[in-house]
Amino acid sequence: DIAVVSEVRRDCLHKVGLLERSMWVGDPGKKGLAIIPLGDWRITAWGPRIRDKWFAPVVVENSVRAVQLVGVWLHDAGGYVRPTLRALQELAA
Q1: For the chain, what is the radius of gyration of the CA atoms?
Q2: From residue 93, how far is each of 9, 37, 58 by CA, in Å?
Q3: Tens digits of per-residue pLDDT, 55-83?
Q4: Across residues 16-32, what is the average pLDDT?
Q5: Are 43 and 58 in contact (CB under 8 A)?
Q6: Residue 60: in which H helix or E strand, if any?
Q7: In what helix (H) or strand (E) does residue 88 lie, and over which residues does it extend?
Q8: pTM above 0.90, yes or no
Q9: Using CA atoms, how far apart are residues 55 and 58, in angstroms rounded to an integer?
Q10: 35 and 25 in contact (C-beta within 8 Å)?
Q11: Helices first, then strands: H and E counts in the chain
């Protein structure tokens, strides 16, 4: 079980004891994007780094498998097609 949560503050993850096992991207003191592996899932690698801010690629693993996952937080008002296409190109490289 892996949660991808948008609009979460880093300090909230810390308060509930999930920060150490999570990946969080965002601006300090503001809301961001978190990938939170639960159970026996663990984040074992981060990256590659995506130029656009709200893409969070990670590798998560448990005792049975490894999965590449990209958490995404996009808003319609900011346009999401171009950033998504750029991210996909960067991930494919």
Answers
A1: 13
A2: 31, 26, 16
A3: 999 999 999 999 999 999 887 776 788 88
A4: 93
A5: yes
A6: strand 55-61
A7: helix 81-92
A8: no
A9: 10
A10: no
A11: 2, 6
